[in-house]
Amino acid sequence: MDFEEGVTLTKYLIHGGRPLHGSIEISGAKNAAVAILPAALLVNGKCRIENIPQISDVTLILQILRELGAEVRTVNRTTMDIDCSSIQNAPVPYELARRIRASYYLVGALLGRFGWAQVPMPGGCNLGGRPIDQHVKGFLAMGAEVEVRNGLIDAKAPGGRVCGGQVYLDMVSVGATMNIMLAAVLADGMTIIENAAKEPHIVDLANFLNSMGANIMGAGTDVIKIRGVESLKGGSYSIIPDQIEAGTYMAAVAAAGGEVEIKNVIPKHLDCITAKLLEMGVEVEERDDSVVVRRDGPITRTNVKTMPYPGFPTDMQPQIAACLCLAQGTSVVTEGVWENRYRYVDEFRRMGARIQVDGKVAVIEGVEKLTGAPVHACDLRAGAAMIIAGLAAHGDTEIDGIYHIERGYENIVEKLSDVGADIQILFVPDDDAQPQVG
Ligand code: UD1
């Protein structure tokens, strides 16, 4: 997306109540890209990475890689050549790292390559406490000394190279699994991660690293073994499609009605979402690399509990809740991963939703209609849920805080407009408080 000079991107305006028809192409997976791009730091040669999503989190990581001396060349809209052969190790700039959660992958990658990393504590969505103790536990098991002080993670391998180690994760953590994997690829010896996360992006990171010469076994199961190798060579790799982006558009069709083919997906990765939509009376037809979602009747109530993969993804919880606001009957949503993922509920209430939250449980009493309102996107997936609610609502919904949404959804306005949604970006000129449609 281009930003005009002197203009700040501020809001989305949605005229709701239009069913969606047509097709949407899914981009590369955000949570795979934000690990695979730092993983290029481990490679002594040129990596051609395809299917990179054009989102602001990716832009920030590429900026950090450039700051560290990587040569980054755009091949086409979604393909980059990244060569980290001549990078220098240096503290990662605070201003860039603090803005993304995934900056913690730089610790694993730099520690693995140089035996030393200094990275500011990560930013990202506020979903309650986001500790990194399991990442640290892994690095310690690999012989590194780790200190968290002055807002920095400082990890150092005494001999200049981490060694293999065995770590049992106290909880299933996507970030810790990937970070330990990154640190272990060039380690001296074998690293074993037990109780590892199994998300599709874990497998994608392992496939990327293996295609560059790493020796990782068991990714996608709960025990991953990484035999350290001396070096990684360059190669080409294509990132998997984004499970959550696809799920978000599936939920949008469920809420707004209509029929949309969601293309460039791995249907297997969507099973956990498809199963819930089917229970809700939404039709989902799986094809080879697409799913067709259809909804013209009422939505039926259901219960949802979020869990690590292959359970229902926490990153789809707000979007499915948006659909359940319009279901016949009362649904119970239980958040099984994060402490505080219901900050969006007050915004839904402004649109007429009936939701009660008690700790990790939300009870949603379906209403016949939602009504448009000014709302705030308090984090990435909550922002996506506001869009879904806005598409289904009667009247106008104005969403602010949309920089959160731009972190993880490529061209969301264009993609939705192409299937008939009435959604526009409102720009506010720097010296004027009145929004202008753009
Ligand atoms: C990643 C995703 C995020 C998703 C989450 C769970 C990225 C960039 N983000 O986040 O969108 O919601 O997986 O699928 O990929 N925990 C600890 N100690 C740790 C690490 C985690 O207690 O050291 C806890 C967390 O507080 C949370 C749970 O474990 O309750 C899962 O967190 P984790 O899987 O690590 O999430 P992230 O990798 O940060």
Would you give an account of this structure?
The chain has 438 residues and is α+β, with helices and mostly antiparallel strands. The chain contains 14 helices and 24 strands. Helix 8 runs parallel beside helix 10. It is globular and about 65 Å long. It starts with 6 loop residues before the first strand and ends with a strand. The N terminus is likely disordered. The structure holds uridine-diphosphate-N-acetylglucosamine. The site of uridine-diphosphate-N-acetylglucosamine has 21 residues, from helix 1, helix 5 and helix 6. Uridine-diphosphate-N-acetylglucosamine (UD1) binds next to helix 1, helix 5 and helix 6.
Low-confidence stretches: 1-5
Gyration radius over CA: 22 Å
Principal-axes shape call: globular
The class by helix and strand makeup works out as alpha+beta
Quick structural summary:
By secondary structure, the chain is an alpha+beta fold. It is built from 14 helices and 24 strands. A hairpin with a 2-residue loop joins strand 19 and strand 20.
List the helices and strands and how they pair.
Elements: E1 7-15, E2 20-25, H1 30-39, E3 46-50, H2 56-67, E4 71-76, E5 79-83, H3 94-97, H4 105-114, E6 116-120, H5 133-141, E7 145-149, E8 152-156, E9 166-168, H6 174-184, E10 190-194, H7 200-211, E11 215-217, E12 223-227, E13 235-238, H8 243-256, E14 258-263, H9 271-279, E15 283-286, E16 290-295, E17 304-305, H10 317-324, E18 330-334, H11 345-350, E19 354-358, E20 361-365, E21 374-376, H12 380-392, E22 396-400, H13 403-406, H14 412-418, E23 422-429, E24 436-437
Parallel strand pairs: 2-14, 3-13, 9-10, 17-18, 21-22
Antiparallel strand pairs: 1-22, 1-23, 3-5, 4-5, 6-8, 7-8, 10-12, 11-12, 14-16, 15-16, 18-20, 19-20, 23-24
Helix pairs in contact: 1-2, 1-7, 4-6, 5-6, 8-10, 8-12, 10-12
Uridine-diphosphate-N-acetylglucosamine binds next to helix 1, helix 5 and helix 6.
